[in-house]
Records
---
Amino acid sequence: MLLLPIQIAITFTLLPLQTSELVNAFQHSSIYQRAAYRQARISRHIVVMGSFDADSAQQIIGELYHADYGKRWLTRLHIY
């Protein structure tokens, strides 16, 4: 019988302390640490870098614009 009131008293004592520590931690963290990456849905960029020949370029372009993918691959292709 005595155990329940003790647990309630401990909960009401520790809960505000832990909540204030959590709020303090969020205030001291940077907004950039909490930011999440959101993918753009307008177009996709593909950057191809390295040494390749005409056959490799043809394979890459043929794969990107293949009919099996439909219109979901509206890409901007940058080759360097």
---
Amino acid sequence: MGQHNADGIGLAAETPTEIVFLDVNASFDATGIEVYNSSGPKIVLKSLAEAPSDYSSNLQVLLLAENNSGKTLTIKDTSDSLSVNGFMTDCSYYTP
């Protein structure tokens, strides 16, 4: 895992990251709907989930990214870049 600023300039060196779950069965589950597969990188739609808050009606898309390409894979959620059914959306709230 490494850190970069908005211009892609490295702020911290890349360091291998290991996530350890003690006393928990944390097996790898790649089931879901494959939405992208290109000779290494693969993205699977796991589910859609409502935001865990009574104050939000947001819907969250839960994805699994698997990288077997041998290259660094960068996935970003860029503000103002999401299009749904041809309509641009952002992260703002509104009440009809």
---
Amino acid sequence: MANSPHGGILKDLHARDASKHVQLLAEAKNLISITLTERQLCDLELIMNGGFSPLEGFMNQEDYQRFKFLLLIYRVTCVTSLIFMSSYKLLVSFVTSD
């Protein structure tokens, strides 16, 4: 029995339809050219073949800013929890030290 892909759907982004493939090649000729690092090429390949399912692409600026904000909230929550637990343990040890 095979495992289901994360998110329930395997995202295969290769253009397998011949007419769509030709259309995308024509469209690509009008796009600017960029040079990718080896790491970026690996990430792109994994997005295309479903290795990063259910992702369909890279983060845009808005997604990145939202992620940074959520990460900050997570970190503050973790630190606050640790401070509370430490304070609680100190209080319990103080009260029970008789």
